[in-house]
Amino acid sequence: MSDSWLIVNLRAIRGRAYPRVVGATREPSWVFFEIVLPLFTVAAYAYIYKFMDARGELIGYVVLGGAMTAFWLNVLWGMASQFYWEKEIGNLQLYMMAPISRMSILAGMAIGGLLSTTLHAASTLIIGAIIFDIVFHIGSLYMLAAIFLATMVALYGMGMMFASLYMLFGREAWHMSNLLSEPVYLASGFFFPVKYLGAWAAAGASLIPVTLGLDAMRQLFFSEGSQDAFLSMEMELMLLLGLCGLFLVLAKYSLQYMEYLGKTTGRLTLRWQ
Amino acid sequence: MAVTHDLRTLKNAAWLGWQMESNWTDPFLFAVYSVVRPISATLILVFMYMVVTGGETDNAYFSFMFVGNALYMYVAEVLFGVTWVIHDDREHYMTLKQVYIAPIRFYSYILGRSLVKIAIVTAGVLITLVFGVLILGVRIDLAHVDWILLGAATLVGMGCLSVLGLALGGLTFLTAKHSMGINEGVAGIFYVMSGVIFPLTALPLWAQSFSKTLPVTYWMDAMRRALMPDAMAELSSSSGLDVTGLGNYDNLYVVAFLIASAAVFFFLSLGIFRYADYIARKKGKIDWTTSY
Amino acid sequence: MTGQSAVETRALTRVFNPKSKREGKPVTALDTVDLRIESGELFGLLGPNGAGKTTLLKILSTLLLPTSGKAYVAGFDVEKQFLEVRKRINMVSGGEVSGYGLLTVKENLWMFSQFYGIKSQLANERIDQMLETFGLSDKRTAKVRTLSTGERQKMNVIRGFLTDPEIIFLDEPTLGLDVSASRVIRRYIVDWLKDNKGKTVVLTTHYMAEADELCDRIAIIDKGKILACDTPERLKKMVRMNTTLTIDVNAVPDKRVFGTIPGVGNFTATDDPERSVTRLKFVIRDESGVPEIISKIIGQGSKILSLQKTEPTLEDVFIKMVGKGFE
């Protein structure tokens, strides 16, 4: 192997992304599930607001939050807990033996899952906007791109950090992902402005990148969004950039440490824990 | 004899289900997990409600929404739980074929496994309701609960949900790994269309007609009428209109419709399961794996 | 780094501690194992279930850390220089179910090649060549989930060799396979070593015949300890059993002539009137006496009906060392 470390890892990312992309396209039924079914949850919450004669923005927040759940779920199920599944089917040891960074494998999973995730998010946003008559007033496209990108990098960095824990987990992995679904929807204000949780709770929840990302996106998508904002967009972008650095560094060391722990205790290749 | 055999299968499957559900961690963490999940799911709605109303929870609609959401856990978890048994045994532990060829009724095994789910969800529902009553002022008064109606509705509802889960489980034989979305989707349909967290009257008329064909709609209504009869009466009387969509029907009528719709779904679900099972055997999909 | 051995372990020990007392006592899977495998060897590890073979392989393939002691692969420390080790190794286990059912054989193999940074074109060339060698060309585009057990294992073996490792660890690679599939794999292993001087194979197996046939040297391991390590021939000589030559002839006029043949110990002659056969059994100390035995039989006008040579087998060695056969 004479190619540089970067080239080798880029190939690894491509290799790991491949089964995700190909696998997803070989079972066409996924299109229906990713597009239509998530709308039901969004619709339910939107109808609550409608029944209560709430402001139009709140229904818009539900649609936006519903779209963003796609990314959170991908982080939880498509990345964080994935090492557990790989261990159970016997792939993890093959990955661990390969001379590549663990982050490359995870990045490959993330990128491979982006197709279905993006479709899920985009379709929820567009169809939800049509059904519930939501009008988006995008303030600044550049700002939106920056916020979205920073949120994704920080979020997936967080996912990589979680993945290191999941390497050692047995069946706790599946339950942990379940445990982190609804509480994060609550804490991050997926379906209502996070500031209504109170300043301290919102501040704590801001450690989850999607909290700040959603709050900023609400300000960008909706003209009245700033009245429900926790912090200004600019401040949220700065914090998100900080979280990017923090989680990527934490992920690197956490993965190294957890792998070391797994090899010491023998749990790296232990199935059916 | 066959009944004894089925009961034994049910018992053994329930034991296995309990092992699978509970021994992945220590009891304390398991208890935390069982409490935190249902309550946080409910709190999402509570905060959504408070954003609009400014925090007033002592009214009939809040109780309607809270109780409905708590009871919905049965719908989501039972449907999911039954499907997950097949998925887990096939993709993960690869024991499905061994269980399948054993001289037991396969759906007895599935239902036994899901019994445990029902038990665990019941704990979650009770914890959520107690939390709601004590902390948020949800209007459940034990002195006014209609226990007979509650018992009847619970029995019919659980039976219907279990068999519906079986149908979805049968479909799992035929679909790829991401087919867990099937049961999420069906549960989502019920969430929107069965008056779980908002009355049927919030939906368009065509949707209301569809809602009235679903057993979960009647089950939700019957359970609310049993648990909080006063709040349900207030909901109708305060506006003079049929707010819930079923307000013009009395308890007996609702239960009758529940039984009738449940019976239809019962036979439909069994039919779907049997057909899916047959096709899966024909196409050799009983023990295929689809991980990617 | 150490000298040029492919694998070296020094007082290698691995203890597994249970999470709680309820789960039992600590298990010593490897107990001060000292081993040296030279480059170019096909080295065998023989041992019963639970002997420590897989644990040793996991340490050498950087999946597990030792509790104490040292292990070096290709001169690199498996603990501190694991990245360098990984660039030079691969592993194939018997009964592997890894891979993705939805992908084709070629796609699965290509994917794993990418984790070793192999260029796509080169990877695809190797894959096609190896599929041809293993008789799986017609399965190139078949989904992995449709493969039979033997085909799947062949695919796994291809995956291991595809990256052209310096050292390959084969953990019971023919486990559960039929005769023809096992033969294909064994032949490939031998040819690979012949065509790639300096490469090393470390093989664990339950099949005595496989170890005897393939391995340059064998280590017998039980309860985490290496009991013996030598060539198959020298291991068999450790078992003080004689070679027996059994010859069935139609008649022998004069049996006394066999007593004077050098290298022949005892002999017996048993007549079977019903079959009209005389069975001669010779205990041979030295095989140079065998031609003289044959010529004396033929010299008397007798006809040899059958001839069978019985010598100590690896199983005899194993039973002597371990005290039991394989379960």
Task: Explain the overall architecture.
The complex is a heterotrimer of chains A (273), B (292) and C (327). Chain A has 273 residues and is an all-alpha fold. Chain A has one domain. Chain A has 12 helices and no strands. The model of chain A has no long low-confidence stretch (mean pLDDT 88). The longest helix of chain B has 33 residues. The relative contact order of chain B is 0.14. Chain B has one domain. Helix content of chain B is 77%, strand content 0%. By secondary structure, chain B is mainly alpha-helical. Chain B contains 11 helices and no strands. The N and C termini of chain B lie far apart (44 Å). In chain B, helix 3 runs antiparallel to helix 7, helix 5 crosses helix 6 and helix 9 crosses helix 10. Chain C is α/β, with parallel strands linked by helices and 327 residues long. Chain C folds into 2 domains: 232 residues, Rossmann fold (3-Layer(aba) Sandwich), CATH 3.40.50.300; 69 residues, 2-Layer Sandwich (Alpha-Beta Plaits), CATH 3.30.70.100. The two termini of chain C are 40 Å apart. Chains in contact: A-B, A-C, B-C. Chains A and B meet through helix 1, helix 2, helix 3, helix 5 and helix 9 of A and helix 2, helix 3 and helix 7 of B.
Query: Which percent range fits the helix content of chain C?
Result: 25-40%
Instruction: Count helical runs of chain C.
Output: 10
The low-confidence runs of chain C, each spanning 5 or more residues with pLDDT under 50, are none
Sheet with the most strands: spatial strand order of chain C: 6-7-8-3-9-10
Q: Round the Cα radius of gyration of chain C to an integer and report it.
A: 25 Å
CATH top-level class of the largest domain in chain C: Alpha Beta
Secondary structure: helix percent of chain B: over 70%
Tell me, briefly, the overall form of chain C.
Answer: globular
Full CATH superfamily name of the largest domain in chain C: P-loop containing nucleotide triphosphate hydrolases
Outline of this structure?
The complex is a heterotrimer of chains A (273), B (292) and C (327). Chain A is mainly alpha-helical and 273 residues long.
Topology, element by element:
The complex is a heterotrimer of chains A (273), B (292) and C (327).
Chain A: H1 5-26, H2 29-35, H3 38-51, H4 56-80, H5 82-89, H6 92-97, H7 102-131, H8 141-168, H9 172-187, H10 199-205, H11 209-221, H12 233-265
Helix pairs in contact in A: 1-7, 2-7, 3-4, 3-7, 4-7, 4-8, 4-9, 4-11, 5-8, 8-11, 8-12, 11-12
Chain B: H1 2-22, H2 27-53, H3 60-92, H4 96-101, H5 106-136, H6 147-174, H7 180-193, H8 205-211, H9 215-227, H10 229-239, H11 251-283
Helix pairs in contact in B: 1-5, 2-3, 2-5, 3-5, 3-6, 3-7, 3-9, 3-10, 5-6, 6-9, 6-11, 9-10, 9-11
Chain C: E1 7-16, E2 27-37, E3 42-46, H1 53-60, E4 68-73, E5 76-77, H2 82-88, E6 89-93, H3 105-114, H4 120-133, H5 149-162, E7 167-171, H6 179-195, E8 200-205, H7 208-214, E9 217-222, E10 225-230, H8 232-238, E11 243-249, E12 264-272, E13 277-284, H9 290-299, E14 304-310, H10 314-322
Parallel strand pairs in C: 3-8, 3-9, 6-7, 7-8
Antiparallel strand pairs in C: 1-2, 1-4, 4-5, 9-10, 11-13, 11-14, 12-13
Helix pairs in contact in C: 3-4, 3-5
